[in-house]
């Protein structure tokens, strides 16, 4: 074989090896996404969460002194009732987006995320549609409070509608992010006009302000401080794929290379 031909062959073979290495590179998302997509345990957990929510809703409706929002102040007993749900991994299942990240060895980017959101094809989390419609039929306004950016409001509304979620025609119930990712101020605003019966989310920032971008230790302390809320006024859905729980492990330094994030995560393992 002539020398250039050998070189070309070596190049092509190494390219193939490179490709197969690429597709089999370990990815921390793999088990998490498969659990959400394939395990009957995830499905059961979500149904369980929404069943609890449905049972609590009636109780909350009847008790005019009931509020689930720490931001609710003043005389709220006569305000119309509302529930506040987060969107991603609470009512909409974005696991196909995560699955694509795994297969393409890609990391989260706003460009990829916007593209996925604009497709508006996320399916509903099990139990979510039934719960939201149950609430709406009882005259409860259903708010979707999300940290999706404002330019995704229309696409989000379209996706929610397509998936069967109730949307109000009287008031804007899809509340996206304008400035801060802290949902406290937006909850406060809703609480000025509605009595908040329940908060439902997958990230603890969906329940109280202090969780957002806080260190793990503080997040754990807050869980204990609000012990009485879990399962009574606040309903949490499991999300092992992403969230502040994971970002806290690398101190919310999103720009760190994946290998550095992984090194920091390994240090957090309890032995
Ligand atoms: Mg979420």
TrEMBL record:
**Position of the signal peptide:** none
Q: What PROSITE patterns does this protein's entry cite? A: PROKAR_LIPOPROTEIN
**A single Pfam family, by name?**
Acid_phosphat_B
GO cellular component, alphabetical, reads: cell outer membrane
| Annotated InterPro entries | Acid_phosphat_B-like, HAD-like_sf, HAD_sf, Lipo_e_P4
Name the keywords, alphabetized: Lipoprotein, Signal
Protein name listed in UniProt: 5'-nucleotidase, lipoprotein e(P4) family
């Amino acid at each position: 074989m002539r020398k250039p031909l050998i070189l070309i062959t070596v190049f092509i073979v190494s390219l193939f090896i490179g490709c197969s290495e690429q597709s089999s590179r370990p990815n921390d998302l793999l088990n998490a996404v498969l659990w959400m997509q394939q395990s009957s345990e995830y499905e059961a957990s979500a149904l369980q969460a929404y069943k609890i929510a449905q049972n609590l809703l009636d109780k909350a409706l009847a008790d005019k002194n009931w509020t689930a929002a720490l931001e609710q102040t003043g005389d709220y007993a006569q305000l119309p009732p509302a529930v506040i749900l987060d969107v991603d991994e609470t009512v909409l299942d974005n696991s196909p987006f995560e699955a694509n990240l795994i297969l393409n060895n890609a990391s989260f980017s706003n460009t990829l995320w916007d593209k996925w959101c604009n497709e508006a094809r996320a399916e509903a989390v099990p139990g979510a549609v039934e719960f939201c419609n149950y609430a709406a039929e009882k005259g409860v306004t259903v708010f979707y409070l999300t940290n999706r950016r404002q330019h995704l409001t229309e696409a989000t509304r379209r996706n929610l509608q397509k998936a069967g979620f109730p949307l109000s025609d009287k008031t804007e119930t899809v509340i996206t992010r304008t400035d801060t990712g802290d949902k406290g101020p937006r909850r406060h605003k809703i609480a000025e006009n509605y009595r908040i019966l329940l908060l439902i989310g997958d990230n603890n920032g969906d329940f109280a302000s202090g969780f957002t971008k806080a260190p793990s230790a503080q997040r754990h302390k807050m869980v204990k401080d609000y012990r009485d809320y879990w399962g009574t006024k606040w309903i949490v859905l499991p999300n092992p794929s992403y969230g502040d729980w994971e970002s806290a492990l690398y101190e919310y330094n999103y720009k760190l290379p994946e290998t550095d994030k992984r090194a920091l995560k390994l240090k957090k393992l309890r032995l």
